[in-house]
Amino acid sequence: xxxxxxxxxxxxxxxxxxxxxxxxxxxxxxxxxxxxxxxxxxxxxxxxxxxxxxxxxxxxxxxxxxxxxxxxxxxxxxxxxxxxxxxxxxxxxxxxxxxxxxxxxxxxxxxxxxxxxxxxxxxxxxxxxxxxxxxxxxxxxxxxxxxxxxxxxxxxxxxxxxxxxxxxxxxxxxxxxxxxxxxxxxxxxxxxxxxxxxxxxxxxxxxxxxxxxxxxxxxxx
Length: 221
Hints:
By secondary structure, this protein is α/β, with parallel strands linked by helices. The chain contains six helices and five strands.
């Protein structure tokens, strides 16, 4: 029985990835793993829970790792400063880096994969992340993939199929799959409505325009 785990934040990229992995039919069971690391936009976790209910997901685990905030500094977490406004490529967005986040998440996902007998872990890093997130770049994915293949008695492969895709190209995949992006939260602020000003919102809005999709999320006026 072939199984896979998708690191699933509840955001647009991982929402698309989870649906695409399920739709591929490559795996008998596809599981989702969501992390609560104290992010200000914890609203994405609620969106993840709601969206999974309409998908053919095996197990959906939500893991509390908020204690890592004792060690890590980032404007994305409750202990950090203000979320910057502006595009991802602006230097100010570097404050949203959560140190070692993807390595931590992939390591835990790999442990769960070994426990389940799954052989693949997916995560949704994409080309738009490369400017400020070192753990979303090709060299990181290649290196951690080599490690996960030898870290346990069971080899686990790490895949990041969107690594060379823009967010707009990811949105096109979602359009082909007829996905409802009203089920995916993107904004780095966890307020009632998406702010439309942070890097995450700006990139999402550009992606929706590129793919010819009307964004179903409501934005602050």
